[in-house]
Structure prediction request, 450 residues.
Amino acid sequence: MPTHLKLNMCPIQNDKKCCSSPIYKIVNARLLMNHEIVEGSYLWFQNGKIINPQNLFFDHLREADKIIDAKGMLVVPGFIDTQINGAYGIDFADHEGSDEKIQADVDTVAKGLLQYGCTSFCPTVVSSEPAVYQKVLPHLNARKGSAAGGAEILGAHVEGPFISVEKKGAHKQAVFRTAENGIEDFDDAYGSELKKGSEAVSIMTLAPELSGVADAIPDLVARGVKVALGHTACKIAEAERAVVQGATSITHLFNAMQAFHHRDPGLIGVLGAADLPIPESSKGHPEPSDTSPCRTKPDPRPFYGIICDGVHVHPNSVRIAYYSHPTGAVLVTDALSAMGLPAGTYSLGGRDVAVDHNGAAYIKGTSTLAGSTVTIDECIRKFQKFTNCTVIEAVEAATLHPAELLGISDRKGTLNVGADADFVFLDDSTGEVQVKRVFVAGDEVDLSTK
Ligand code: ZN
Prediction:
């Protein structure tokens, strides 16, 4: 058969998925790729994955079935939130009610997050009793996203109960624990779900100065759990030792940790570390930057989550963190159940939380911050404003960096071939980004209810 008659026929006749699934092509877009904005290029996807168009032309002799006109907008990977306690009146630590109710609540939040461009997230559970983890964690296991089903779940972020009484924040002290028996104590606290590794628990926040905790870090890492340091009164030596043991992240930098002191800078001082061992693999570590201990090798310093709502951390502090370690910045909302709801009093982990008109949430009757009500797109806008970084760097702090932290940058946080087709179309014509269209696993999300 002459070649021109073969168009629209797939030579792999038994590859039904290839033959039948529509191919999409995004045109007229400015694409965020490899730390640059690329113009005049296209993005192709099929079956929820970004594909290489050359394979289509030369191997499968196919053209796109559907053209998506981005109308000059900036197209970036879907946003990833690695710390979010809930939204719309729902708290992921709430174990009351039936399994059906808990599942329905998780779905409600997962769907709602898509409206802000958040296409994957780590549902976060505050310090709880073992019975609570056993009930809620099975509902927070990793699962794929879809426009109908909501943002992808990347496994839970369990914050505590191996945390410091001194830096407890809004957590319930009665359930706090130490780990004299090492990993056994962790299994005792979280139950069988922890044995599933990152499928169930993708991030664990702990305080390394507590008895037995730092020594258990290698066992947690071996299970695929990313260890984050937070809610801690640790000194710099304890923090650096925990990083050497395998901790790769800091939880909500500046909040719930020792304030910076020049003679012992505590956990914050890790941002200034110059002699940590250089990681052998880049996976799970920040890329080198001008401030890295070695500018050509992965940065041994941990990533750091930062709540960029303008309340939890002063803009100048955000700027200091960013300029000390730009490739480690991970924007998190730390949003709680009141996100998406008006000012008022709500419940978080069984405690009353008052939300004011700025969106700041405090333990009722105190000045202790309990979490935020900010959305991830707003964090990006604020981060760009506070640090004066480029739109590329601001977006990467909510896409590439969290994907690198989780060790999933082969499928999340980039627009590279093989990555999931999670996209956000941004209007950046005013200088700050506004979410206009959202795709998750190749499905477009209906934003009309936004
Ligand atoms: Zn916290």
